[in-house]
Amino acid sequence: MKKIIFTICTICLVGCKSKEMITVSNANLSEKESILIENNSNYSVASIVGIGAELIKKEQEKAINKKLLERENKLKNIPGLVVTTIDETNGKKIFKATMQNEILFKFDSHELNKNAKSILDEMIGIINEIPNTKIKVIGHTDNIGEKGYNILLSQNRAAAVGNYLRNAGIETKNITEEGKGFDEPVSSNKTEAGRAKNRRVEIFLSNDY
Questions:
Q1: Is 108 exposed, middle or buried (0-12, 13-18, 19+ CB in 10 A)?
Q2: Are residues 205 and 127 in contact, defined by beta-carbon separation less than 8 angstroms?
Q3: Which of 3, 97, 104, 144 has its CB surrounded by the most CB atoms within 10 Å?
């Protein structure tokens, strides 16, 4: 009988070795593993690694979401930009920054003006805050003039934006450009107000997490 009681007490002592609750902290994985090993002798190494990896994943997701929120707020504070967000089915978030051509270029030109460079300089600082941001620049026009000419004009305008970003140090592999001409209007081309909305450059920012 005494032997049975002694055995039970021994088990209790092993199982209750630590009175402290294990909580998520900012400690790195190896420290978490040490705490788990010290306080919970019944944990397997596989369990410890699994729990540590899950904690790290959650912390990473939290940090990413914080950076994306900061990016969104900063983009929306740039005068001349209209910023919208696109939530993809895989959970990724894409930012679309739209600028009207009148803000960026002179009439029938693809040379960036001073105002355009000021806007892009602000964007470059925001882009560089998150490494390996993918940038897609798409140029659009209204339907005045021949289709081929408008496609070329929209391509040149998209390329002007892309080249400015490259010259600022953003890696070429992360930038693509495309000219749509007047194939994708966002408003009616029957009025000047509608055509003005259609003359635009869209910059899409995305990241692989």
A1: exposed
A2: yes
A3: 104
CATH of domain 78-206: 3.30.1330.60
Is the overall model pTM greater than 0.90, yes or no? no
Question: Domain spans of the chain?
Answer: 25-65, 78-206
User: Which of 179, 177, 195 is CA-nearest to residue 187?
Assistant: 195
Residue 187 C-beta-side C-alpha neighbours within 13 Å: 14
Is it the case that residue 145 has pLDDT exceeding 70?
yes
What is the pLDDT averaged over residues 62-88?
Answer: 93
In percent, how much of the chain has pLDDT > 70? 75
Give CA torsion, residues 164, 170, 174, 176, to 10 deg: 0
For the chain, the average pLDDT equals: 83
Of 176, 174, 98, 181, nearest in space to 137 by CA: 176
Instruction: Label the pairing between strands 175-179 and 134-140.
Output: parallel
Q: Among 12-26, 142-156, 176-190, which is the least confidently predicted range? A: 12-26
